[in-house]
Design a protein that fits this description.
By secondary structure, the protein is an alpha+beta fold. It has a domain of 67 residues. The chain contains 3 helices and 2 strands, in the order βαααβ. A two-stranded antiparallel ribbon has the order 1-2. Helix 1 runs antiparallel to helix 3. The protein is flat. The two termini are 20 Å apart. Keywords: Membrane, Transmembrane, Transmembrane helix.
Length: 97
Amino acid sequence: LVDRDLTSDDITGPCMYTEVGVGLGIGGSATALLFGLDPKLLALSVVLSSNPATSLIASTTVNRQLARSAKGAVVMAGMNAGLQAGGGAAIYMGYLF
């Protein structure tokens, strides 16, 4: 992450969302958004993750570099209560215009 104030140009380009949630009567969820990612590292990460052999060997290093290339992050978390039982996690890649 950069050590300066963000501009509107920083909040564009490739991004990655991570969501996790769990609940059994009482639950919680969290969402993290990394934005301003390096597009070349993102493309390399997708290619390496698509093959099981390269996924084990090289994708961890590339994914770490990809996360470090982010210009900023937004993290949100919360708790809830209600009729629920379950959990899940997801990672999404996208583009902010």
